[in-house]
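FORM 12-B: Structure-to-Sequence Request
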């Protein structure tokens, strides 16, 4: 597995990581199989997919507990990233908490659940609007100095409320990055990036590239859509976030099929064993040496397929074809 640097180059991880959220959160609860998830994490590590991305809110807490069962045996094989800053209340109502005391307690709790004494990358899931982000980041930097955390990352804020598109969609995140960078170095930024949602290319990714900051591409497979395995109108279980997302209506899924067709066409050019998902991931990895793709899955065979994308090299013709994939007016571009 190709290695890519994180932050100032003192840390590195595989170019393709493993998003662990689907194992415990957001998708159909009836399909969450603990033992299969454990096998998936082990298989990913075997393949060099060492970047494990989780958060304390996934479950909540159960995703970290699951990973802890693996890390207890294989901590040296993993690059461990988790997040704090969001609390899940009744009816799964989510609120931000960036109070310094809370962040420190949350880190200690994550360490216990993950059965480790250090977190490689500790990420601020969302800034608390009631707390200056500099105060939250300052508390997180103290965790680095205490040896509990190796580096700090920030998750991007989507354009909630304004629904703006274009370069301005990440203005809030860029402002936060400028502020926290004055307190302690930012090692990574996590945001959605895929051929379906390339908006981060316009401002957010260039900011990272100019400063040697790793860009962690969340949802590089569009929550399954870019794999070509979802059928318009197939429906989702009520507890699946896609059941309520405008992009996954039958109409929108049908309208976006040309993107999947482009991925299939490029995959065929590279041989019978290449899949649309691998092409989608290879496109993300081609955006720069500082980009790491974090596809989420809870099945070992998908983790194997995703890992293979690190070896796929797209041609200029491929990239031109995928960059010209048509957008659909009215599609919600943010998953926030």
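FORM 12-B RESPONSE
SEQUENCE OUT:
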């Amino acid at each position: 597995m190709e290695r890519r640097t994180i932050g100032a180059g003192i840390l590195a991880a595989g170019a393709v990581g493993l998003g662990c959220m689907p194992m415990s959160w957001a998708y159909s609860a009836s399909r969450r199989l603990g033992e299969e998830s454990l096998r998936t994490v082990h298989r990913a590590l075997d393949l060099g997919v060492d970047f494990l991305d989780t958060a304390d809110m996934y479950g909540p807490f159960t995703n970290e507990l699951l990973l802890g069962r693996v890390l207890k045996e294989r901590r040296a094989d993993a690059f461990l990233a988790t997040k704090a800053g969001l609390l899940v209340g009744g009816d799964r109502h989510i609120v931000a908490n960036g109070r310094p005391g809370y962040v420190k307690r949350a880190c200690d709790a994550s360490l216990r659940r993950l059965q480790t004494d250090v977190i490689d990358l500790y990420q601020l899931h969302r800034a608390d609007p009631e707390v200056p982000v500099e105060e939250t980041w300052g508390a997180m930097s103290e965790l680095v100095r205490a040896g509990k955390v190796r580096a700090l990352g920030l998750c991007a804020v989507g354009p909630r409320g304004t629904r703006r598109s274009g370069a301005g969609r990440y203005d809030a995140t860029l402002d936060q990055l400028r502020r926290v960078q004055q307190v302690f170095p930012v090692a990574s930024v996590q945001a959605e990036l895929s051929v379906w949602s390339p908006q981060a290319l316009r401002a957010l990714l260039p900011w990272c590239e100019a400063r040697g900051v790793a860009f962690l591409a969340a949802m590089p497979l569009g929550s399954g859509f870019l794999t070509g395995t979802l059928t318009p109108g197939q429906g989702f279980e009520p507890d699946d976030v896609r059941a309520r997302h405008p992009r996954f209506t039958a109409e929108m899924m049908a309208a976006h099929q040309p993107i999947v067709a482009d991925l299939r066409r490029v995959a065929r050019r590279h041989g019978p064993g290449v899949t649309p998902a691998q092409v989608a991931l290879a496109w993300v990895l081609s955006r720069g040496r500082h980009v790491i793709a974090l596809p989420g899955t809870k099945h070992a065979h998908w983790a194997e397929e995703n890992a293979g994308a690190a070896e796929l090299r797209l041609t200029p013709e491929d990239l031109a074809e995928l960059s010209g994939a048509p957008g659909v007016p009215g599609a919600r571009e943010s998953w926030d």
